[in-house]
């Protein structure tokens, strides 16, 4: 017989585990399906989460898994490969198991596609960074570089100038003519140096970033490089269910209400599944909101059904 759950949570990151914790405490039979691919895996620490500042992401998730287990929540290391909506949801796992759920929480996050400059990917999360709020304090006052991926990288260069007064914006494949007059005025006011020319590679010595080398052979001494990966939302399951998406400059994300409810009845989304800028603390909050809404939804559905008998 196919196992039936009140809720299946797809994704075992901060959003998914937070939702599962609330659901477990509300005595809802819950299954978390976790593929084990958290977005922040390259980072040694996570910052800005009150009471958990500086905690390694893997430790944070391990504690979360222990907490949900106390309330009878099941967790399986697997991947959801298909889902069908009928009277309830049929959730198909890569391992061959099919389970049914009355409600779904999609917390599948997103993937970061990095610029294809040699050594950028291998240094990502160490001295190649993307978020100054996540890592700025730890690298403050060092020589920063910003590797442009679009004209919008001007904003990133301006933001990181809060943490260092030695910032160089490497335009890479962005033409200087693509920068607006306002961009140039702000960069000058922030004393950010604009460096035209394509970046050929990063210079790494003794396992530390020491410079950025351009295609013309010139090298700029830098110890930290910020760049903006291209976010790729993991919305395949939502699309198969027919969820409405809305386009943003950072990809297409599901249309949700204040609780994370999508346009598909019974399906909520949380964390980076609903936006590229959701930090760990936001993701955990979103999972909590979705779960509490689901508990109320299930209760009212059952009470209405009982009242009709």
Describe, in plain words, how this protein is organized in 3D:
The structure is a single chain. Strands 1, 2, 3, 4, 5, 6 and 19 form a seven-stranded mixed sheet that branches. The protein has a five-stranded parallel sheet with strand order 8-15-9-10-11. By secondary structure, the chain is α/β, with parallel strands linked by helices. The protein is built from eight helices and 19 strands. Helix 1 packs parallel to helix 2 and helix 1 packs parallel to helix 8. The model has no long low-confidence stretch (mean pLDDT 96). The chain is 27% helix and 29% strand. InterPro entries: FAD/NAD-bd_sf, FAD/NAD-binding_dom, Ferredoxin-NADP_redctase_2. It comes from Streptomyces dubilierae.
**How many alpha or pi helices?**
8
Topology as a string of helices (H) and strands (E): EHEHEEEEEHEHEHEHEEEEEEHEEEH
Tell how many strands the DSSP assignment holds: 19
Contiguous low-pLDDT stretches (5 residues minimum) are none
Tell me the overall shape: elongated
Largest sheet: 7 strands, mixed
Strand content: 25-35%
Helix content: 25-40%
Cα separation of the termini: 27 Å
């Amino acid at each position: 017989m196919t196992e039936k759950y009140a809720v299946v949570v797809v994704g075992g990151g901060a959003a998914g585990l937070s939702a599962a914790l609330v659901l477990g405490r509300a005595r809802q039979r819950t299954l978390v399906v976790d593929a084990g691919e958290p977005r922040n895996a390259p980072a040694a620490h996570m910052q800005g989460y009150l009471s958990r500042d500086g905690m390694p992401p893997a430790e944070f998730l391990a504690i979360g898994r222990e907490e949900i287990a106390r309330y009878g929540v099941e967790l399986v290391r697997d991947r959801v490969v298909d889902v069908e909506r009928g009277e309830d949801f049929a959730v198909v796992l890569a391992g061959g198991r099919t389970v049914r759920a009355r409600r779904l929480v999609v917390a599948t996050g997103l993937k970061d596609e990095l610029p294809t400059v040699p050594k950028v990917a291998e240094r990502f999360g160490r001295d190649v960074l993307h978020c100054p709020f996540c890592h700025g304090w730890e690298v403050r006052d060092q020589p920063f570089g910003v590797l442009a991926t679009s004209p919008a990288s001007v904003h990133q260069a301006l933001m990181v100038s809060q943490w260092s007064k030695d910032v160089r914006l490497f335009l890479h494949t962005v033409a200087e003519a693509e920068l607006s007059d306002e961009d140039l005025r702000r960069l000058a006011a922030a004393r950010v140096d604009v460096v035209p020319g394509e970046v050929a590679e990063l210079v790494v010595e003794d396992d530390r970033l020491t410079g950025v080398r351009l295609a013309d052979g010139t090298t700029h001494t830098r110890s930290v490089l910020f760049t903006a990966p291209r976010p790729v939302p993991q919305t395949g399951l939502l699309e198969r269910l027919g969820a409405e998406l809305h386009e943003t400059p950072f990809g297409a994300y599901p249309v949700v209400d204040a609780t994370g409810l999508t346009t598909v009845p019974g399906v909520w989304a949380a964390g980076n599944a609903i936006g590229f800028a959701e930090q760990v603390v936001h993701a955990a909050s979103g999972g909590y909101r979705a779960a509490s809404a689901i508990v109320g939804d299930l209760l009212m559905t059952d009470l209405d059904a009982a009242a009709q008998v």
